[in-house]
Amino acid sequence: MAGGRILAIDDEQNIRRLIRDELGLEGFDVETASSGEEGLEKLSRQIFDVVLLDIKLPDLNGIEVLRRIGPKIPPPEVIMITGYGDIQTAVQSMKLGARDYITKPFKLSELLALIGQIMDENGKPAHLKSQRSDIHDEYDRGIVVFRSPKMQEIYGLVDKVASTDVTILIQGETGVGKDVLARRIYARSSRNDKPFVVVDCGLLSENLAESELYGHSKGAFSGAKQHKKGLVEEAEGGTIFFDEIGNIGLELQKKFLRFLETKKFRRLGETRERESDTRIILATNMNLTDAAQRGTLRKDLLYRMDVICLNIPPLRDHPEDVSHLADHFLSANVVGSGPMRLSREALDFLTAYPWPGNVRELRSVIVKAMIFAKSQLIRPDDLPSHVVGKKKCVQSDPKSLEDLEKDHIMSVLEETGGNQSKAAEILGINRKTLYKKIHKYHLLA
Ligand SMILES: Nc1ncnc2c1ncn2[C@@H]1O[C@H](COP(=O)(O)OP(=O)(O)OP(=O)(O)O)[C@@H](O)[C@H]1O
Ligand SMILES: [Mg+2]
């Protein structure tokens, strides 16, 4: 797994040094930065496969840095480094695209396992990867698990629509398996020997989007030295997957609608209209109706899209799949341990947890548990505290920030046996603030 490029952004010199020395010994090429701005500056000049990003930085916070890393091609995988008490921020960062998080103080073996997993899954470092993804590697070797009636219904539909050329819109929260589903549709279609091209609409740069999608002729703009095919032409004969369709800029939406409706497009700088022979799949984790109401999505794009919608429900709505998915991830044995299984109690916790990051989060929890389990049997002790802490209050609705704060404070208080000074220290707030919050939420009532 050697040979990847890693950027560690952390203000603690010890951590930077540890990462640089140890990962360097493992054969990685490591750069470091001590602030968010310095990190972003390095990212603007070089391509990295993995970014290790501290949530608490002196200038920008990690979330802000993560947002600004967003529009990079190819995107680096980001692992957040969090302190105790930052779990909610870590979950938020995963929604924003971070791959995973690791809690300080961490073991080097833990960090190496995470990075190894990313490198193995991606096959080769991102900076060597092209936009086109090869269906015969990564995802599709993996088995798709869908045992519950809800999921069987969706995957049943896939077989029906795969053979047609109809445009498909896949909707669902982050991590529910939209990519997996799109690739399945492609794999089952008669176009499966032709390209599968992924366009991450959130990453299309405002200025270059049109030429990236449709290509350009020589001299179409300064810098256009050659004729160039766009992604649509790269996908000719195959399938083009527009991911995060809700993030497409307003400017581009009109031209995009025309392409969706007619499959016709023009290279930038050309008058000739070209016709594309592709199957289109769209995906979004946003509610498009809301986006249209907010004005970030054109209404006609919403209503005139002639598509079949496949809605993948959040994992908490089909908890019966948790045990099958968990077994699947255990048997995939990504960490190279012997055969492992879950204790009954551990499975109960996993089934009761609301999984805001859905299947992706479940996978990450299982992989971590496999690394940390003290025996071949994974027990509740081996699971992260935020997963085992929530059993008593199964939530199906998204929780407000206040609820999250309240739950978190409560669990820390429980952990410290009600010792407020200790709890305040762990939470990183002063005692007075904690005292106020305890009263606000009636935690001692
Ligand atoms: N039904 C499934 N069976 C096995 N693995 C799954 C299944 N659904 C999702 N996964 C795994 O969960 C992870 C997330 O899936 P995927 O990338 O498809 O989610 P997504 O809905 O596209 O998320 P996002 O909105 O963040 O892009 C992947 O590692 C994927 O392999
Ligand atoms: Mg996706």
Structure described in brief:
By secondary structure, the protein is α/β, with parallel strands linked by helices. Helices cover 43% and strands 13% of the residues. The protein has four domains: 5-128, Response regulator (Rossmann fold); 138-311, P-loop containing nucleotide triphosphate hydrolases (Rossmann fold), CATH 3.40.50; 336-388, Helicase, Ruva Protein, domain 3 (Orthogonal Bundle); 401-440, Arc Repressor Mutant, subunit A (Orthogonal Bundle).
Protein topology:
Layout: E1 5-9, H1 13-25, E2 29-33, H2 36-45, E3 50-54, H3 62-69, E4 77-82, H4 87-95, E5 100-103, H5 108-122, H6 138-141, H7 149-162, E6 168-171, H8 178-187, E7 196-200, H9 209-214, H10 231-234, E8 239-243, H11 250-262, E9 264-265, E10 274-275, E11 279-284, H12 288-294, H13 299-304, E12 308-311, H14 320-332, E13 341-342, H15 344-352, H16 358-372, E14 377-378, H17 385-388, H18 401-415, H19 420-427, H20 431-440
Parallel strand pairs: 1-2, 1-3, 3-4, 4-5, 6-11, 6-12, 7-8, 8-11, 13-14
Antiparallel strand pairs: 9-10
Helix pairs in contact: 2-3, 7-8, 14-16, 18-19, 19-20
